[in-house]
Amino acid sequence: MYQQTITEAKQNFDKSIEHLKKELGTLRTGRASSALVENIQVQYYGTPTPLNQLANINIPEPQLIVIQPYDKGGIKDIEKAISESELKLTPTSDSEVIRISLPDLTEDRRKELVQVMNQKLEEGRVAIRNTREDAQKKIKQAETDGAISEDDKFKAEEELGKVVEEFNQKVKEIGEAKEQEIMSL
Fold it and tell me: What is the pLDDT of residue 30?
């Protein structure tokens, strides 16, 4: 009975890790990447829309992102969304495409990126804690309902603790790798 609860928790932990990886992919590391801008929300006809649904995003050079909107009328909205994003990028455009030239990262900017990264890592750890708490409640409820014995409850909590430790270690490793990437460029 409790195995299903543990399996569901693992699936939620995996989702949290994938979300964390996606979030950290948006942090700039000195090389252009479409992941950097593709999820920026653009106010397009009054509706927040991810940039990758409004334009082609290309990386012709390591320090350059070229955005070609499907609708040329959306260029100003896209420029505004990029300028106002936490990435602190300055787009330039002609009537066809938007170009974003990525300057080299300064030491101060790298430290800022590490702080942002640490916030995202903490959000990942909070998501894991919340999932753990939900699983613990289910396990305790199963014992209260008589579906599992007290011994099974302790086994389930112990197994859940090991799984949580494993996923917290993954978060730590992901963070260390990203910090190394940010600081070594």
Answer: 64
Q: Is 166 exposed, middle or buried (0-12, 13-18, 19+ CB in 10 A)?
A: exposed
The terminus-to-terminus CA distance of the chain in angstroms comes to 49
167: phi then psi, degrees, rounded to nearest 5: -75, -35
Query: Among all chains, which residue has been given the structure tokens 């991810």?
Result: 50
DSSP letter at 100? E
Q: What is the DSSP string of 111-136?
A: HHHHHHHHHHHHHHHHHHHHHHHHHH
> Which tokens go with 46?
């009054």
Burial of 109 (C-beta count, 10 Å sphere; 0-12/13-18/19+): middle
**Cβ proximity of 17 and 25 under 8 Å:** no
The residue type of 106 is T
Q: How confident is the model at residue 185 (pLDDT cuts 50, 70, 90)?
A: low
CA dist 127 and 168 (Å) reads 11
How far apart are alpha carbons 156 and 7 in whole angstroms?
A: 11
pLDDT tens figures, 36-82: 888 889 998 888 999 999 999 999 988 889 999 998 888 899 999 98
% of the chain exceeding 90 in pLDDT: 44
What pLDDT sits at residue 180?
86
